[in-house]
Amino acid sequence: MTNVLVCLKRVPDSSGQVLLTADAQGVDGRYVGFTISNHELCAVELAVQIAAATGGQASVLTLGPAEAADQLRSALSLGCTAATHVEADPTGFGPADVAREIAAVVAEHEAAGRSHDLVLLGNDAADSGDFQVGIRLAYALGRPVVAGINRVEVIDGVAVAHGEGPFGQDAYELPLPAVLTVLEGGVEPRYPTVSGRMKAKKVVMEQRGPTTSDLTGPSRVQLTLPPPVPNQVQILGEGPSAVDAVRKVLLDLGVTR
């Protein structure tokens, strides 16, 4: 039996135009809405699969405002069966602060007899690009960690994690308990069903506050947006006079027929 905890972050939906906050410390989600990143959706799918295969439980955790309960409910509708909400304004929390809060939840749950054999996180934060939380969490818990995996299974109490290496797929064997950070691409996240959404509404989520107000805070200077990709348009001609120009373009592209 392997119990899996997935750590999520409420992030702006980046499918539209990306805007930064006035202080350039984060992505402004006021006009685009909020969601769960693709990395973390894949982590949820892996957690649900592992729990089902081993007879364990898939749980979900987030640190965020009251509205982040929506993201927890989304994960519950996908197959997780328990949720913990550390309610706080995340803007003042740096990676070290977030890792400390997750470690505190894991420790308290274990003291109460509820173990988390495997903790999964997204490889990086979709809104701020932080890659540190998973590594800091593993250090705080004294657990082995592998970053950037896309598939994992548990075999005889050992986690076998797969990820893209410089020469193809690499595989790592880790004794449990362990921490893994997940990249999208290894599994296809499932869609919530109607029954899954109904069950999610009935789950009583654990509510708690942060363990301390003494925060390290984010260490980034600011975020920047890449310059827009320039668009170039070349008028080849009009009517029959453009035939030769079109033919040349097709030949340059390697189109012979």
What labels would you give this structure?
257 residues; alpha/beta; seven-stranded parallel beta sheet; Rossmann fold; 6 helices
Order of helices and strands: EEEHEHEHEHEEEEEHEH
Shape: globular
CATH architecture term: 3-Layer(aba) Sandwich
Rg over alpha carbons? 22 Å
What's the short version?
The protein has a single domain, classed as Rossmann fold. The chain has 6 helices and 12 strands.
Describe this structure in words.
This protein is of the alpha/beta class and 257 residues long. The protein has one domain (4-208): Rossmann fold. It contains six helices and twelve strands. Strands 7-11-6-1-4-5-12 form a seven-stranded parallel sheet, with helices on both faces. Strands 8-9-10 form a three-stranded antiparallel sheet. The chain has a two-stranded antiparallel sheet with strand order 2-3. The longest helix is centred in the N-terminal third of the chain and has 17 residues, at 38-54. It starts with a strand and ends in a 5-residue tail after the last helix.
What topology emerges from the helices and strands here?
Blueprint: E1 4-8, E2 11-12, E3 34-35, H1 38-54, E4 58-64, H2 69-77, E5 82-87, H3 95-111, E6 118-122, H4 133-141, E7 145-149, E8 151-155, E9 158-165, E10 168-175, E11 178-182, H5 194-202, E12 206-208, H6 243-252
